[in-house]
# Entry
Amino acid sequence: MSFRCSVTVNRLFAVVAFAASTLFASSNSLVHAQGTAPAAEGGTVVTDATEPVVVVTLGSVNKLMQDINYLTGVVGQPQYGGIFQMMAGTFTQGVDLNQPIGIIVPLVNGTPEPIALLPTADVRTVLKRLEAQTGPADELDDGTLVIAVGANTVYIRQVGTWAAIARNRDLLSLAPTDPASLFEGMGNDYDVAIRLRMQLVPTETRNMLVAQLRQGFEQAISKQDQADAEGTKAMAESSIKQIEQLIQDTDELKIGWNIDQAGKQLMFEGSFTAVAGSELAAMYGGQQAIPSQFASVIRDDAAAYYHTAMSIGPQAVEQVSASLENATGAIRAALNQSDDLSDAQRADVEALVQRIIDLASRSVKEGKADVGALLLANQNDFQFVFGSFVADGNEAAQIVKDLAAKIQNEPKAPKFSFDLSTYKGVTMHLIEADVPQDEDELQKMFGPKLRVHVGTGAKSVFVAVGKDSESLMKKLIDSGDSDQGGVRPVGQFRVKLLPILQYAQSIETNEVIAAMIDTLSRASDGGDVMVVQKSIVNGQESRMMISEGVLQAIGSAVRQVQQQKMQNNGNF
# Structure
């Protein structure tokens, strides 16, 4: 949940998507180069094949039907579940309805070759149901069945209680008799699951992916203005190096999506591991949960909270520090291109940004991250408080003081009041700004004046906004020494939809929001969304849970919008 973790995970998924598209593009190119092989030959001969690099599973037909019926019922659209059940019943005769369906993708002669695995003890029965779409199947001398799917020829062979399906007859010999071991931790544990084993991709192919990524970056930079290109080149180079590290050092990535009826929630899970002994593994190994100054934000009555408290290893410190330094160059280039700033203003902003980045870099070099944020809300008001570890809270205060001195003569500049009091070693400051009278929503939220409370300690910064938020900030300060750590995720985030919608409705009424509130008020939960990140050996595990209440609220919002459209059309 830290900045470093979020960026890494996002880049990783982008890399996976790029790698898959590149590999399969290579596969398609090879197919076109080979031309259409005679049916008796079934394509090129397999001379070299890896274990499956990618494994994809769908839950069993029974699981999918039950889960989709549940999901469509929860969102108030059960007819779509009925349609899926009808279609599944039409085309799955002969299929084992309790076994998952899978696709494995080994690299064959250096090219990815998908092989589908269908759970059936009699694939001829399945094909009989499809004759209207494919025509009758032909049978080769070794018992392999052949059908035409559009312009493509597909080869099918019974392998034990499974049917293997591929575009090349020789690929069928790679199909396992029992794929249970390949589906371990996937299959019926999820509705959809994907596992990538990066180290099975040959080094030459991984190097090709890196080269193509680098080429793409260089082409993008070449299209920018020279000044912009110079400013972003260092940042791009840093990003390429990090992506290259992900491609070369990733061991396994697994992603799963499941409709959890028992838990009444949707669940998205992902896990990532690096090669043992690699720099990337050391980076993730350095991220462990630690005692936190801000753990009290984790509250059951919160409308939302965010918390992360973890150690940061030397490898991650070095990488984040380099990224921050590169960001400085990019920001400087952007400022130089701005026509809205004078030279003096540009120099002031650049100096301020440099101080902020220097403070962030010094904080990272302390070897830990500790951040907490809390939102409390009801029908009439809200409170928000934020706290974070910094290397030097006094420097953070001085940055704001210097900013205040620079803008004090500007029209509509906020009023800064510094060093008003001290509470348990934290110096209190206040920033006030007039809220325009014509901004009705902002007037309802903050009144005629926005008040932002700021606290700076020796190694901490606090910010609070909302009614009586200074009191909430002091409670966060009070709890700072009470946390003993223990077993806790390195990062977690939670949102409860009902109190947020109730507050939004008190600011401005809306029929769609009213419908969602009505639904959530009767639901078994308040509409929870939760994200958790945990440290595992050589990697990290992430989970997102979306409660049944959220799904019901979305369904009610859709129905309300549909009803409004019908009314508007009727009025028209």
About this structure: The CA atoms of residues 335 and 346 lie 6 Å apart. Confidence is low (pLDDT under 50) at residues 1-41.
